[in-house]
Amino acid sequence: MNIMDFNVKKLAADAGTFLSRAVQFTEEKLGQAEKTELDAHLENLLSKAECTKIWTEKIMKQTEVLLQPNPNARIEEFVYEKLDRKAPSRINNPELLGQYMIDAGTEFGPGTAYGNALIKCGETQKRIGTADRELIQTSALNFLTPLRNFIEGDYKTITKERKLLQNKRLDLDAAKTRLKKAKAAETRASQLNSARLEGDNIMIWAEEVTKSEQELRITQSEFDRQAEITRLLLEGISSTHAHHLRCLNDFVEAQMTYYAQCYQYMLDLQKQLGSFPSNYLCNNNQTSVTPIPSASSNVIGPSSMASTSGLVMASPPNLHDLKECSGSRKARVLYDYDAANSSELSLLADEVITVFSVVGMDSDWLMGERGNQKGKVPITYLELLN
In terms of DSSP bridges, do strands 299-300 and 382-384 run parallel, antiparallel, or are they unpaired? Predict the structure, then answer.
């Protein structure tokens, strides 16, 4: 029974405190009550913490979008994270594209130019997919997790203490208001002390003033203590910035590693595709290209490739020299080639044939001769010999 009485009394006290705070807050909004202002340093710390929270959330969410553009996949990962379970491994887009290319190249035939190129592109795409997976894992561990820990940990604690400070401030201002009203009532009662009733009122209001002053001292002490706790927490934001700076450096290093790997993979792929026929690699809708000089001057292959617009071939300088002269040259075959019709000559990798130009022939072809066999051969399958 005593425990029940205690709970009822505590509930009534809490309800009274809540009501007092609500009244004080409402009167402040209506301009009918004074409000204790926080010192400028504490206000600046609160503003800094709020700004840090807002931008940390934006950076964190956009980084998640960057690393995982698929919103359904992000939701799935979020659910598994909240369930404290490991999300199932899934093939990413570059890996899937790479597998499709390899399957297609195998279907078309590894011995054909297109099939061989597809297989090489597919292998490179799968390597990029692996690098992409490593970027996501490293970034999540070294960058996203610390940001999320701040939002879900440190800032929640700051928010809790900030709310408690707000309540203590309302209690303080409510105590100030009650003391002000008690003093005003005591003054009015002292002016009307002609009757016994008024004299009793003076004693009552004097006691009320004493009680209000004591309550004010208590609420002021509690407010000052909570303000100090909140200030110490907020001053930790500078340490948070320093920690996030280190995490940002880790994220930049992870991106740098990823893009360096991708660049090297594509550079290697470009070299492998450098001697493939232009009619397999060019974009028929292409209207402009940015040439890049070839690393080899004696390879009858593309001397330029568009770095941003697609893989587009251009005739090398030594091809023009060959077409301008009437003589023949020896050339080594770089890749196997199956003749598409009787006018073409089938080729085997590493064999040496004789080539020469014919007036009116397409610029991508030369006439090849091997013993008694003769036919057109694609120039990008050949390397001129000195």
Answer: antiparallel
pLDDT digits (tens, 9 = 90+) for 349-364: 889 999 988 888 888 8
Nearest partner of 98 among 256, 259, 262, judged by Cα? 262
CB burial of residue 191 (10 Å; 0-12, 13-18, 19+): exposed
Cα-based distances in Å from 7 to 13, 16, 20, 180: 10, 14, 20, 32
Residues linked to residue 299 through DSSP beta bridges, in sequence order? 383
Task: Dihedral sign for Cα 340, 341, 346, 352, please.
Answer: negative
Residue 264: how many CA atoms within 13 Å on its side-chain side?
Answer: 8
326: exposed, middle or buried (Cβ count in 10 Å: 0-12, 13-18, 19+): exposed
The 10 Å Cβ neighbour count of residue 370 is: 17
Q: Report pLDDT digits (tens) over 132-153.
A: 999 999 999 999 999 999 999 9
CA 227 to chain centre: 36
pLDDT tens digits for range 304-325: 333 333 333 344 445 555 555 5
Number of H helices, E strands in the chain: 11, 6
Tell me which residues of the chain have a pLDDT lower than 70.
1-16, 18, 24, 27-28, 30-33, 73-74, 76-78, 80-83, 87, 191-202, 205, 275-326
Per residue in 278-302, pLDDT (tens digit) is: 444 444 444 333 333 333 334 444 3
Bin 150: left if φ > 0, else alpha if -120 < ψ < 50, else beta: alpha
Cross-sheet strand order for the sheet of 299-300: 299-300, 382-384, 329-333, 352-356, 365-370, 373-378
Selection from 285, 270, 283, 322 nearest residue 300 by Cα: 322
Whether 298 and 384 have beta carbons less than 8 Å apart is answered as: yes
Residue 7 tokens read as: 């709970």
Radius of gyration of the chain, Cα coordinates, nearest whole angstrom? 40
β pairing state of 373-378 and 329-333: unpaired
* CA distance linking residue 356 with residue 300, whole number of Å: 13
Q: 212 exposed, middle or buried (CB, 10 Å; 0-12, 13-18, 19+)?
A: buried
Q: Which helix (H) or strand (E) holds 243?
A: helix 237-273
